[in-house]
Amino acid sequence: MTYNKNTTCILPWISLDRNADSSTPAFAPCCLYQAQDKPKYTFEEYWNSKELSEVKKEMRNGVRPKGCWKCWHNEDAGKKSMRQSVNESRLLPYENLISKTELKPIQVKLLAGASCNLACRMCQSHVSSKVFKVWEAIGMSTKEPYKYDYDSEQIIRENAESIRYIDLMGGEPFYNKRIHELIDWLVKNKHSKHITIYVTTNAILLNDSLISNLKQFENVVVIVSLDAVGKKHEYIRPGADWNIIVSNIERLQKNKLNVIIQPVISAINILCLPELIDWCNDRKLHMTQMSLVHNPEELHPKNLPSALTHLVDPRFQSFLSEDKTNDCLEFIKKLDKHWNTKIYDIMPEWKEVYNKKDKGDTLEKDYDLYRRTLEYVKKI
Known about the structure:
Number of helices: 16
Largest sheet: 8 strands, mixed
Shape: globular
Structural class: alpha/beta
Distance between the termini: 52 Å
Strand order of the largest sheet: 2-1-3-4-5-6-7-9
Radius of gyration: 22 Å
Helix content: 25-40%
Number of strands: 10
Strand content: 5-15%
């Protein structure tokens, strides 16, 4: 069958993902896909749904499915999209499936639930059980933490012969004993030899038994969430221990397991990124594409105080290009009060703007209110 390479993504034919932007993640081809509505499909209903069939048909025929708008947005802006990245490694091996209707999942994401050992400042209430408690304490609006994905675990167990990729995400995946039990089951039943595991982790809860099991898989990619170096990272992710993290990264490398570093770019750490990049380069650690904080919106890099923007490395200035929408300082101060910390004790460049309201930011907020008022008046 012929298909249009400019619009086709292999994921709808091979992937069973979860769109984890709510307390009840829905089945989807990938984590970025957004349907117009989100019916609560069972696996069989989703896998054979009209929605998924229509996505495949549009892709083959050169039409951009609306639910994939995030990839089209990136591609139109000259940025590499998830579609393009995935196709580089998986389109050619699985393109024969594009002409088939009877398919089994080859790639499955398993969300290990929101249970987590950390309360990261730029995380969300439905993604981390500890962040949920913090947001409740400081009066933030919360979403119910999502639960362990029993459905996807069952799909993995029932389709273990055909599955080639498993993506584990939390919360913290290794905080949940069911993840350890599933890994052990895959090893003991000899499925691990043909499966590649991707796991996103804070790299604190590793042990010898887990590492020994991971070595039994065809391939393992450990994506370590690091946002800064040393005490700065510990500040951003309350509960983290930098020395344990470094020791565990070294253990993974020693056991020849692939380690990738993935920062989350926020207003808190955008000034720290050059130091983190140098740290990774010194240790020959590859850094994957950085993710960006969109929620809580206060911590989007665009909301960095104006008095600090000149300190942002030119490589990351593009993240400041959007108009400010929120006051990140007020949000940071709320978290500091909760944790009895001060950001400037760890990052001294914040001290002046922290203790004295930045005049530039006040003017920008007044202008933004004026601009939005004008837009509203025009509408009515």
